[in-house]
């Protein structure tokens, strides 16, 4: 089995990554309600603007990060596993690609947040939301290790924690592929073991859950290789199940509370709900998106591929933009209760999305290309990874 008949770029994955990033951004609107580094007691999420419409995102939008890990696993096994295994992609090539894609914007936003937090502290005497903005945590962020267990708390542009964890996964992935491992059963085994270890080792839960999802993404890649050549009946069945699962998920948030019924099953109900998004909802979604695009080509989503292009910039820029909004309050330019008004929520996204695209076009891509052209020994660019 191989993926030579697949499109060179799967736009469906790009778009889904961009939407997941925007879901995390909306979930973080809650930052505006913080008093210092914590929410007020008895905080009621229903006061967030347009809560009735966006309830599922306000409640669980942070799961977009989990989808990132799953998607990354799929993409890396698709694009890099074979070339690493046959030594056509060296460790140097691999890390130049990762560094050029991730570090420049991370470094820029780290500096911006450090400056904006100092300005915010000058008005309020304490930082906005993330408190550990000292030299030690700046150094951790500088090295991209802000979530490796060395940290004392949340710091600087904290959403970058997920990228910090991905760096660890890249190490693990490279040496897995280099050693000739990483086939379907191996990926599934690592995923399941990591998932259950996360339950029993709370201190490592973040990294273990991320590893579980990353290698599950690798398993979905191998599963796609098996299913994509099969008859359309197989695929239609997968699509129907995926749509049904999403309908049930949305119904759980807006109409019926299925979760409480499942919790009555005790420990098995808890494990099911814990693994529902990880092992059912997101894998089926990813699986379906890839199969559809392999069969029908990328044309139908190519016009909106920019949504995927802005995923990294929107993810890293949204907290600095929040800082600008609260500094606007500090300077008397905005009403202190602006965050309750849906108009400001809309304005925030109307600013963030174009800013993210401009950043991608004018900063991310040029610097990425410059670094790769200078340091890579060969060019293997197939997507905006």
The number of domains is 1
Q: What is the residue-averaged pLDDT? A: 90
User: Rounded to an integer, what's the Rg over CA atoms?
Assistant: 21 Å
Q: What is the tally of beta strands? A: 0
Shape: globular
Amount of helix: 55-70%
End-to-end distance, in Å?
24 Å
The main pleated sheet reads as: none
Could you give the order of the helices and strands? HHHHHHHHHHHHHHH
**Count of alpha/pi helices:** 15
Low confidence ranges: 379-383
Helix/strand-derived category reads mainly alpha
Estimated share of beta-strand residues: under 5%
Please, could you describe this protein's structure?
It is a single chain. The chain has one domain (11-375). It is mostly helical. Helix content is 69%, strand content 0%. The longest helix has 34 residues, at 91-124. α1 packs antiparallel against α3 (63-79), α5 (91-124) packs parallel to α14 (311-330) and α8 packs antiparallel against α9 (205-227). The protein has 15 helices and no strands. It has helices spanning 11-27, 51-60, 63-79, 81-85, 91-124, 135-142, 161-178, 184-200, 205-227, 232-254, 258-263, 267-296, 306-309, 311-330, 342-375.
Summarize the structure.
The protein is mainly alpha-helical and 385 residues long.
Map the helices and strands.
Layout: H1 11-27, H2 51-60, H3 63-79, H4 81-85, H5 91-124, H6 135-142, H7 161-178, H8 184-200, H9 205-227, H10 232-254, H11 258-263, H12 267-296, H13 306-309, H14 311-330, H15 342-375
Helix pairs in contact: 1-2, 1-3, 1-14, 3-7, 3-9, 3-12, 5-14, 5-15, 7-9, 8-9, 9-12, 10-12, 14-15
